[in-house]
Amino acid sequence: MAPAGMSRVPDAAPELNWLLAEHEKNVWTGMDPTGWQDSVWVLHAMYENPTLEGAGTHDDENKRRIAAGGEPTMIGDFNLDEATTDSGVPLGYSSTPGPDWRRLTWGEYLARSGHSLRDPHIYPPCHRWFPPDSWPLSIDPPPEGSLDQASFAALIHSIAAFEPNAYDTEIFAFMAMLPAGSTDDTDYHLWKGPLGAIPSLMVEGYRFTPTNWWPADRSWFVWTDYDLQGTKVSGPTGLIESVRSDDRLETTAWNKSSN
User: Fold this and answer.
1) Cα dihedral across residues 80, 85, 88, 93: positive or negative
2) Which residue among 40, 76, 113, 152 is the one 20 to 30 A from 249 at the CA level?
3) How far apart, in whole angstroms, are the C-alpha atoms of residue 253 and residue 244?
4) What domain of life is recorded for the organism (predicted)?
């Protein structure tokens, strides 16, 4: 059953031609076209639980789980837990945690080590902005490859406030191959429907928010890459200012040309 208000586009290639012409290789992780007046990055939300301070890291907790008889993560005969470190970073959509958790901004976290969002970064918002170790168990890090629940809802609201048709604005939503769990790069997961119906795609079985979404007139564009912890919003200055001024969103002006 299709999500309420959303329908899958049966012949998606014609609608994607304008993207595929330059970004065909990125159908696996996400497409990032250029040409809009302005852009901003929405940083995926992280949270902190002070009651868990001193409880170790996410990797420590995973090791304790296995020592207590938990099943290790196996890929065939390969024990992933023995060969890797559990960073604690969620891959895919994450819900807002319970009442013991408070929002921790990237700016707050970076300031603890003498850094800031204004520091030069070679890469867009991702794990490279943080120490390479496993995150403390007291912190729920920003998800990779997907907006989190709170940021997703806030971004939709911010865009709807800018659009004349608000939540009824007709949009396209594309799921890249890796987030869609597909191995066929010609089987495009493209959906069409009103802006306000995008969250219903999550009940379709996707574990990620849409990789790319845009209106029928292509006046703005959203990109959440499978490998990043931030979402890029491109469009007219008025829309970008609307996103920047939304106090429910943490944003940064990272730009490849200036880093």
Assistant:
1) negative
2) 113
3) 9
4) Bacteria
**Phi, psi torsion values for 42, nearest 5 degrees:** -95, 120
**pLDDT reading at 204 higher than 80:** no
DSSP 202: G
Task: Give CA–CA dist 89/127, Å, rounded.
Answer: 9
pLDDT in tens, 75-132: 666 666 666 677 899 999 999 999 999 999 999 999 999 999 999 899 999 999 998 8
The Cβ of residue 14 has, within 10 Å, a number of other Cβ atoms equal to 8
DSSP 8-state secondary structure symbol assigned to residue 216: T
What residue spans of the chain are helical by DSSP H? 13-23, 58-67, 80-83, 106-111, 149-162, 177-180, 237-244
- Predicted structure pTM score: 0.92
Element at 258 (helix H, strand E): none
Q: Quick check: 240 and 255 in contact, CB under 8 A?
A: no
pLDDT of residue 74: 62
* Residue 73 · residue 82 · CB < 8 Å: no
* Cβ neighbours of 251 (radius 10 Å): 20
Q: What's the average model confidence in pLDDT over 179-205?
A: 90
Q: Mind listing the pLDDT tens digit for each residue in 136-173?
A: 999 999 999 999 999 999 999 999 999 999 999 999 99
Backbone dihedral angles phi then psi of residue 111, each to the nearest 5 degrees:
-65, -25
Q: Which of 131, 132, 107, 127 is nearest to 119 (CA)?
A: 107
